[in-house]
Amino acid sequence: MEATGILKLRVILDKDNAEKLILPSCPNSVQALIDEIKSRLNFTFDFRLQFHDPDFDNALCNFFKIEDLPAIASVKVVRLVELDRISTSTDDTILQTERGEVNFLPSYPSGETRESLKTRRLEMVEEFKKTSAERDIPLIHQHMMRTFALRREEIVTTSPPVSELKDRWPALFHDTQLIGLYKKRKTGRVGERMEQLLLAYGKQDKNDIYATRTAALAGLPMYLKEDSSEIFKTCKDEIEFYEATIALVADVDEEEVPGGVPFSPRQVFIVLEDQVVMTHHSWTDALVCLFGLIYALHLNYPEKCTGFFEFIQVVLLKLDDERKQLKPKLQTLKNELV
């Protein structure tokens, strides 16, 4: 489209949510459009875009050229942590993991060899040596999709340490119903903790979607009677950041966080294998990224919170449609939410 024309967008967030956005003119690049969407919709996470391509009966296609976008268009936001779920091959080897989901070892894409994929990986490493403004984001997206098979093969078969993966695949590390159920749990020790959570939530701005999501997700381990204290932490001392295999560490101002829930952290650190691999300003965004990293890096769920992560995987994200039966407490919760 012409750069001077008004751009009307339907920005799709998920199957149930979309935002209308009207821009006075079309940005001069896809990255500029992403930056504009991020700014206007107050997104704090990194994402790429897909669009409904009129050349293919409005089927979703990856969006790399701004000139492909019609003046009135629908674009879909795809978080970068979701990239590793995309396979570019149909000739797949299937493995069953301890978490119960089906994992794939896909064949290399047509026309690619191990050497060509290694070259793509090295090109991405070089891109991440540049500043954020200098990086070729469309190139990185394309390479991440094309190298899925090589990356998955490496992660599943050799289980390299996170520190090595961060060096080899830097792009991997780049970013109300439950509340109603929680109100029923007000007896016993679990009820006391839930009461503290709800009291803390009651002091938050009810128009703040992040507060609602934080309360819902932070309360889930309590509801399932799981101990999340070793995973969800708050502190003011950087020494603690490096003392966890898997953790979210919220940097907070208060000595004691009401209800143990970091509604207003300064920042949230994602810790894997005793090192900080990513940071976010939102606790819920950090949790999404943590789950994505656990899934993408083929890590086991923390032993004391397997139900919490399985619920996110199977019920919220529907990543395991082949599972015939959930654990009883997860099935009960799922039934109450239906």
TrEMBL record:
**Tree of life domain:** Eukaryota
Species this protein is from: Oreochromis aureus
Against PANTHER family, the record matches this protein to: SI:CH211-196P9.1-RELATED, SI:CH73-42K18.1-RELATED
Q: What is this protein called?
A: Sterile alpha motif domain-containing protein 3-like
